[in-house]
């Protein structure tokens, strides 16, 4: 028989993306604990990457927020938006007001190329571009060099595919999405005519999914170019393809694309494999003019996986914009142990730990990408968060919480009010949601996001 915790458990979840909401739901549904869950987010809007990272032309994926709305409707759930850990609250504040803390802060930083010229005008991390077109307030003012006729997208994952697809869609295709208004205007007047998507390994090792890849072949006014020779596989790559239905489907699609005759589209997507950027070259004004690529060969490792090795050959491709999409990483949070090597919150199986000694930090946990790094799709967070919640409850039953008396639940609200923080509740968010949806209806889109953070808060202050 499962032991019940003999007292209400109050938990702070930091981050309102999928992993945070799934953790909250698992806590609130647990039959052996009466839980009160406060979910904090530094933005006044919930849902994390579902709102700020999922491509605007992928509306079906965003319907997952209906599940999160049901969680938010539970009486013991609260959303406290526009509250940033490390700015408005400290970790010690949370420890004083909650029995347990769950960090669900995701990966908001880009992994960098680490090559000469990376910081010049026209070299932009994918997180900036994705945040810009999704209306994230951090990136609303970003300057994207869309006057460039040729763009290099570095990476072979789903983010790289999203970025390439948004660059290549027609204004009519984009207008029907929830692309931020400022991005719709800029992309509608874009000078981009060619996109080069570059992968350091071969087609067998590409990380994009067949569903994402298939969409590249369905663009209304863009042709695909792939050299059939790039799709010939070495024995190790052939073995990788044979072992994965997803890779088999990717290769089938790539071969089908390579055999297509040109349709006469106004834009072109080139898919290249086995090349790595080594330097970004600047023009006389200090902006991107070209990208130096090293050609790679594939070599099998002892474990059977395939690595890219430089051949010593290089080539230079003239481009005016470089978008690096080679992965995300977590940023450190003041007071929270951080694994500098893995770029995640230091943890063992979701229990936060000292980065050096690996000793557990009592009653602190981590879920989602902040725990594992950027791996898995939205739905995969449900099981991962539930596993960590089980460990939380097991620790509680073992006496880790020990019925510690806390201040009243409203004490955290009073603390934030005393610090001048304008807290945004879930009902406030629903008001914003209604305004954005109404704005979107006027242009025939699912929503038109309010990207200006101050404007959002001003609307709620009316």
What key phrases describe this protein's structure?
single chain; seven-stranded mixed sheet; 2 domains; 462 residues; Rossmann fold; alpha/beta; six-stranded parallel sheet; FAD/NAD(P)-binding domain; 17 helices; 33% helix
Kindly describe this structure.
This protein is of the alpha/beta class. The chain folds into 2 domains: about 200 residues, Rossmann fold; about 220 residues, FAD/NAD(P)-binding domain (3-Layer(bba) Sandwich), CATH 3.50.50. Helix content is about 35%, strand content about 20%. A 7-stranded mixed β-sheet has the order 3-2-1-4-20-19-18, sandwiched between helices. A 6-stranded parallel β-sheet has the order 6-14-7-8-10-9. A hairpin with a 2-residue loop joins strand 18 and strand 19. The protein is globular. The chain starts with 8 loop residues before the first strand and ends with a helix. The model has no long low-confidence stretch (mean pLDDT about 95).
Strand and helix map with partners:
Elements: E1 9-14, H1 18-29, E2 35-41, H2 49-52, H3 59-62, H4 65-72, E3 77-81, H5 91-97, E4 100-103, E5 109-110, E6 123-125, H6 126-133, E7 150-154, H7 158-168, H8 171-175, H9 181-188, E8 194-198, H10 210-216, E9 222-225, H11 235-242, H12 245-258, E10 267-272, E11 275-282, E12 288-300, E13 306-318, E14 321-324, E15 328-329, E16 338-339, E17 344-345, E18 347-348, E19 351-353, E20 360-366, H13 369-372, H14 380-397, H15 411-418, H16 426-441, H17 453-461
């Amino acid at each position: 028989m499962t032991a019940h915790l003999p007292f209400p458990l109050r938990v702070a979840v930091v981050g309102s993306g999928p992993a945070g909401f799934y953790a909250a739901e698992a806590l609130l549904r647990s039959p052996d604990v009466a839980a009160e869950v406060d979910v904090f987010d530094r933005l006044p809007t919930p849902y994390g990457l579902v709102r700020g990272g999922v491509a605007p032309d992928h509306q079906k994926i965003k319907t997952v927020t209906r599940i999160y709305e049901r969680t938010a409707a539970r009486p013991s759930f609260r959303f406290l938006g526009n509250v940033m850990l490390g700015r408005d609250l400290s970790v010690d504040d949370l420890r004083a007001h909650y029995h347990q803390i769950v960090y669900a802060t995701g990966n908001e930083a880009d992994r960098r190329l680490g090559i000469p010229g990376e910081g010049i005008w026209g070299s932009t991390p994918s997180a900036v571009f994705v945040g810009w077109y999704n209306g994230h307030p951090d990136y609303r003012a970003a300057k994207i060099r869309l006057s460039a006729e040729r763009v290099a997208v570095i990476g072979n994952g789903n983010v790289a595919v999203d970025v390439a697809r948004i660059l290549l869609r027609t204004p009519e295709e984009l207008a029907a999405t929830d692309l931020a208004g400022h991005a719709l205007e800029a992309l509608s007047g874009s000078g981009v005519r060619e996109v080069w998507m570059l992968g350091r390994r071969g087609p067998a090792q590409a990380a994009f999914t067949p569903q994402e890849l298939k969409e590249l072949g369905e663009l209304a006014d863009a042709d695909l170019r792939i050299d059939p020779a790039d799709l010939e596989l070495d024995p190790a790559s052939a073995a990788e393809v044979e072992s994965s239905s997803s890779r088999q489907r990717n290769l089938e699609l790539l071969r089908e694309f390579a055999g297509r005759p040109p349709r006469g589209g106004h834009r072109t997507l080139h898919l290249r494999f086995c090349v790595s950027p080594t330097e970004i070259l600047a023009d006389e004004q200090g902006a991107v003019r070209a990208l130096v690529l090293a050609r790679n060969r594939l070599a099998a490792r002892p474990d059977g996986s395939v690595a890219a090795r430089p051949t010593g050959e290089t080539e230079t491709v003239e481009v005016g914009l470089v978008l690096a999409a080679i992965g995300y990483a977590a940023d450190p949070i003041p007071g929270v142990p951080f694994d500098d090597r893995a770029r995640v919150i230091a943890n063992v199986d979701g229990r936060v730990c000292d980065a050096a000694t690996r000793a557990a930090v009592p009653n602190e946990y981590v879920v989602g990408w902040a725990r594992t790094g950027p791996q898995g799709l939205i739905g995969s967070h449900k099981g991962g968060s539930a596993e960590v919640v089980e460990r939380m409850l097991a620790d509680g039953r073992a006496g880790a919480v020990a019925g510690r008396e806390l201040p009243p639940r409203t004490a955290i609200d009073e603390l934030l009010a005393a610090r001048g923080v304008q807290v945004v509740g879930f009902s406030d968010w629903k008001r914003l949601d209604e305004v954005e949806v109404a704005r979107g209806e006027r242009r025939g889109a699912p929503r038109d996001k309010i990207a200006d953070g101050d404007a959002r808060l001003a609307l709620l202050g009316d």
